[in-house]
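User: Show me an example of a complex going from sequences to structure tokens.

Assistant: Sure. Here are the input components:
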Amino acid sequence: MNRMLCPRLVIVLFLISSAHAVKVGESAPDFHATDSNGQVQKLSAYRGKFVVLEWHNNGCPYTRKHYESGNMQRLQKNWIGKGVVWFTVISSAPGQQGYVTAQQENEYLKQMKASPSAALLDPQGEVGRLYSAKTTPHMFLINPAGALVYDGAIDDKATTDQADIATAKNYVSQALQEAMANKPVSIPTSRPYGCSVKYAH
Amino acid sequence: MGRFFVWVVGSVGLASAAWLVSAQLGTAQSLADEHVKLELVSEQNALVSKEELFLGIRFTLQDGWHTYWINPGDSGEAPRIEWQLPVGFQAGQVQWPYPERLATPPFADYGYENGVLLLTSVRPPGKLREGETAKIAAQVHYLICRDVCIPGQKQLTLVLPVENHAAASPESALFAAARARIPRPVPRNWKISATSRGDEFILDLRTGRLIKVVEFFPLQAEQIENAAPQKTTAAPGGVRLHLKKSKRLLKSIARLEGVIVLDSDKAYLANVPVRSSKMSRHN
């Protein structure tokens, strides 16, 4: 009797878990995605490290604010230097703004002098939907134990103005500083700001 | 010599990149102007000392483009207005007509397609003299989107004469239409309550009449899930609206603030304390 019920129960549990959008405090769902160098990247391979996910669209004025100012590149360099894994994720569908081939992404990274750990190409939006990524930028921080500890905006100035970066509170850096010092993340969520992620219709 | 060459090429490269960036920014502004017209308009054709006057920022949008409400929803940005008024003039808060729901599956924004008139009341000082004019200006920062988004910035000015009596301006009909969409206070005989139960807020609204169509637009971000269907359950003389909580809402909230729209044309401003359901073990 139990052996007959179990498979159905497993299926039901799978359906519930895949429909549920991950919340801060919960285990960050594993993903695998091909990066712009053709490598398959899995979140679970980085257990034991802090992982930042940065949703990206190179044409969106909010993304451009953080790239044309050099802000995102500085953040990536600074935190990767401290052992953080930083993935740029592109979930724009083919034909939509922000969609890039691997070669185009590598050219962009070179032109922008950006060095994320990898740029994950997600044109089917699988990783995006798994995390319910809604804007570019939209930032997530996963701790070494695999828990989601930040989900929201990059900072507290929801504008396209580069001049706002200098006086903005960077939520990602703050969360990393606190988590690395074994303190609770004081602002674990915020309204992510930016353009909508260009999923396929 | 080799290193010098590299330095020159590098500098040229940087200069080109900078040029490209500034050209793109310049292009972005002229692109915004192609899709939206902004005007500063007045309900009346003249100023009268000490008499309240309504001004409006009028957005006229090309087909397919939209701009945003005070809470833009899952993406986008609300317009910001900075007034530059003559000495002694006082401006009130911007009054926002209730928005449309703009679906961007699996998410939703709140805003305006086609256009909107954002109202503000202005009170001129006393002792203005007939025959004088006053120049009123507003700097507007805004975002318009279709499949892509373009930020814009516009300096608007309006010169109005001072007279003893004012008549309706050519734009006055726009003001009446906008005013009909401004949320009004909830009538005193209504009963509204909000309960937090599990993963939803239940807004219980009793107006004394059967309610067929109702929609709630939140004023605060990340309290409810903007794209979730707002299920209704029947209640005597009213309705209960089930609002799914945002996945980024980690703490209980004291109040639920937003606009309730009945029958797709009557908007009310609600600010309701939230109580916890005794049946729920969660916030």
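The lines above are the inputs; the final block is the predicted structure for all two components together. Chain A is about 30% helix and 15% strand.
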